[in-house]
Specification:
Blueprint: H1 10-17, E1 29-35, E2 38-46, E3 50-57, E4 70-71, E5 78-84, E6 91-98, E7 104-107, E8 114-115, E9 123-124, H2 135-144, E10 152-156, H3 158-161, E11 163-164, E12 170-171, H4 174-188, E13 192-195, E14 199-200, E15 213-217, H5 224-236, E16 240-245, H6 271-274, E17 275-276, E18 281-282, H7 289-304, E19 310-313, H8 316-320, H9 342-358, E20 363-366, E21 388-390, H10 392-403, H11 413-417, H12 419-422, E22 428-432, H13 452-468, E23 472-476, H14 501-519, E24 533-537, E25 545-551, E26 557-564, E27 570-577, E28 580-588, E29 604-606, E30 617-623, E31 627-635, H15 642-651, H16 657-670
Parallel strand pairs: 10-13, 10-23, 13-16, 16-19, 19-20, 20-21, 21-22, 22-23
Antiparallel strand pairs: 1-2, 2-5, 3-6, 4-5, 6-7, 6-9, 8-9, 11-12, 14-15, 17-18, 24-25, 25-26, 26-31, 27-30, 28-29, 28-31
Helix pairs in contact: 4-5, 7-9, 13-14
């Protein structure tokens, strides 16, 4: 060991200790550098309660006497040092002698960029240089990844999407996914992929939700550069990348963050605040400034180094409340005696502010299942600052409704319509995620009653309702072709089912839905704006039919949707429409190409001056059994000719300035397009 050389300045230390250093990955961990003409690796680790810290590895026989780190004299608790003549690929750990009862611990690097393939647990020295090719994507991202653009997400578990059956049934590598996955997602028409946590994790069965490597993609599938290549390839093909990220808890494994320097460094020191009863894991101490710097640096890292277009933040509800999943007496109230975790709330706000300020065009998405107010509202008005929030209520109600026998759905009609009561209180994403097809819940197809045809028809009708409902969309892998079994992480998806017409029909329908969703602005431009949705008929529980309108920025083009949620075709079904020239059918989930019954429908519908549903005009339609039908309508917008408009204004009696002002204000209030403004985080 030579005399220490540091990447840390006094300003870095000040930021770190104040919880404001958001790029710690540039300073802590292991970095390949040249010091005084000698190439080697500079190490820096935070261990304030250690009496001695050494770097151990193959280069010194895993002995802790040879390469000791030096404690900084500024009280930061950081140890650092330079080891000459080692570099890329060197495996290492920190050996920490604690002040706490003389404990001796061997720990992986919290800031490691790469790790050994599990079950091995050492960190790996690695350089992250990579020549990105996604300049065009990054340049256009502020527009294409905005909240007024289509957002159709394919959620994916890398380890079980597809396996290499010729090489021991192993998971595909990042490089293989770059070709196969990119081609598949592009063909299916999804706009984004959401990877379940790729961050390193020791237990494969945790699906990544017990993370140990907050700066390292899992080595199970390849190197950091190979993961970059996957992201790059997706971007080159116009597909955004969202990473599932877990700041809510971390595993108790002895080699990782827990009891890092012999004390509760990253976690709380008491079980009431520091241990999660559901996942048997530790909870981060969000009130400790250095921990906040660590976590926000991790969030920044994936957007910075790996060009992630967004983060889906796991288990936000468990972070917001101190009594989450706890019984009376098992939790500690906040300083005001309440149940809210004030430190976690502050952390989430600061994290979102940092991400949106530094990375143009990204989105953060909260998995949050409670009625906590303002999750997807800006921090400056008291919100948490997320771009979107999972609409868990919609998911629960929708699956509950479709599970009902269609004969009795009339008695549960409010279940399928209730989501529109609160649909615009947040920027909602509609999730049919992995959580709905595990732990004995069965696949989505199992929720659907009836024979095989009816089950497939129900599933297609539900997807049609989902893609035309306000909000963005998320579908877990396998759902796109009606996987008939519960997801199992040790097996690949049952791809052979695409040879069967029933499953192929569902896949073709999802592909058509994505195409429709991306091509019709009325389905996405006002996804979070009440002026983008209007019920035609919400109360026809007798027929279990709902009809509604979707609007975009162009007032002359609207989308009209009808869902018949029984196996009985509704012939000569009249519903009101705005004055239009005609309705053109865009998509019918009952079409033969989707394995539907191909029940008779007309390609166009002429609006008649017959009153229905409080509207002067209406159409007569046939709605097939268990089907969602989508039409596009051209609205006749009446405008006065210039001469008549001028004459009309001249004939208007003169009024006082005060009266004119009142009239203009009233007109503005009555305008439907201006009653609700779209709010963006």
């Amino acid at each position: 060991m030579v005399s220490p050389h540091s990447l840390l300045t006094d300003f870095d230390i000040s930021l770190f200790n104040g919880g404001k250093h958001f790029r710690l990955y540039e300073k802590l961990g292991s970095h390949i550098v040249e010091h005084e003409g000698t190439k080697g690796v500079l190490f820096a680790v935070w261990a304030p309660n250690a009496s001695q810290v050494s770097v151990i590895g193959n280069f010194n026989g895993w002995q802790d006497a040879q390469h000791k780190l030096y404690p900084r004299l500024d009280g930061s608790g950081i140890w650092e040092g330079f080891i000459a003549n080692i570099g890329q690929g060197e495996i290492y750990k920190y050996k920490i002698h604690s002040h706490n009862f003389g404990q001796i611990l061997e720990k992986t690097d919290p800031f490691a960029f790469f790790c050994e393939v599990p079950p091995n647990t050492a960190s790996v020295v690695w350089d992250l240089q990579y020549a990105w090719k996604d300049n065009q994507w990054m340049k256009e991202r502020p527009k294409t990844n905005a909240l007024n653009q289509p957002f159709s997400v394919y959620e994916l578990h890398i380890g079980s999407w597809k396996r290499n059956t010729e090489e021991g049934y192993r998971s595909l590598h990042y490089t293989e996914l770059a070709e196969e996955l990119t081609a598949y997602v592009k063909e299916m028409g999804f706009t984004h992929i959401e990877f379940m946590p790729v961050m390193e994790h020791p237990f494969f069965g945790s699906w990544g939700y017990q993370s140990t490597g907050y700066f390292a993609p899992s080595s199970r599938y390849g190197t950091p550069q190979e993961f970059m290549q996957l992201v790059d390839k997706l971007h080159e093909n116009g597909i955004g990348v969202i990473l599932d990220w877990v700041p809510s808890h971390f595993p108790t494994d002895a080699f990782s963050l827990s009891n890092f320097d012999g004390t509760a460094l990253y976690e709380h020191g008491n079980l009431e605040e520091g241990f999660h009863p559901d996942w048997k894991s530790f909870i981060f101490n969000y009130g400790r400034y250095e921990v906040r710097s660590f976590l926000i640096s991790s969030a920044m890292f994936w957007c910075d180094v790996y060009h992630a277009d967004g983060l889906r933040v796991d288990a936000v509800a468990s972070m917001l409340y101190r009594d989450y999943s706890r019984k009376e007496g098992e939790w500690r109230p906040n300083i005001y005696g309440g149940r809210e975790n004030l430190e976690a709330i502050s952390f989430l706000r600061e994290m979102n502010e940092a991400l949106y300020a530094n990375f143009e065009g990204i989105q953060t998405i909260a998995e949050e299942s409670t009625a906590f107010s303002g999750v997807s509202r800006p921090v400056y008005i008291g919100g948490l600052g997320f771009g979107m929030k999972w609409m868990m209520g919609w998911m629960h109600d929708t699956l509950k409704y479709f599970k009902e026998n269609p004969l009795f759905r009339r008695y549960h009609h409010g279940t399928i319509t209730f989501s529109l009561v609160y649909a615009f209180s947040e920027n909602f994403m509609l999730p049919l995620s992995h959580d709905e097809v595990v732990h004995g819940k069965g696949p989505l197809l199992d929720r659907m009653p009836g024979d095989e045809w009816q089950r497939m028809a129900n599933l297609r009708a539900m997807y049609g309702y989902m893609f035309t409902h306000p909000g963005t969309k998320l579908l877990f892998m396998g759902g796109e072709f009606g996987q008939p079994t519960e997801w199992q992480h040790d097996h690949q998806l049952p791809w052979h089912l695409l040879q069967q017409n029933s499953h192929k029909g569902v896949a073709e329908y999802v592909k058509a839905l994505n195409k429709l969703y991306r091509s019709e602005p009325a389905l996405y431009e006002k996804a979070f704006d009440a002026s983008g949705f209007e019920w035609i008929e919400v109360n026809d529980y007798t027929n279990s039919v709902i009809t509604y309108i979707r609007r975009g920025n162009n007032p002359e083009e609207i989308i009209i949707v009808a869902c018949n949620l029984t196996p009985v075709p509704r012939e000569n079904y009249r519903f009101g429409v705005p004055e239009t020239t005609e309705l053109v059918e865009l998509l019918n989930s009952d079409a033969g190409e989707f394995w539907g019954s191909n029940y008779k429908t007309l390609p166009t519908l002429k609006a008649e001056q017959v009153e229905a549903h409080g509207r002067e005009f209406s159409v007569m339609a046939t709605i097939p059994p268990l089907a969602t039908v989508v039409w596009k309508a051209k609205v006749v917008v009446k405008t006065l000719p210039q001469a008549e408009e001028t004459k009309s204004q001249e004939e208007t009696p003169k009024t006082s300035g005060r009266t004119k002002k009142i009239e203009r204000t009233a007109e503005k209030k009555d305008s439907p397009a201006k009653t609700t403004k779209s709010k963006k985080a």
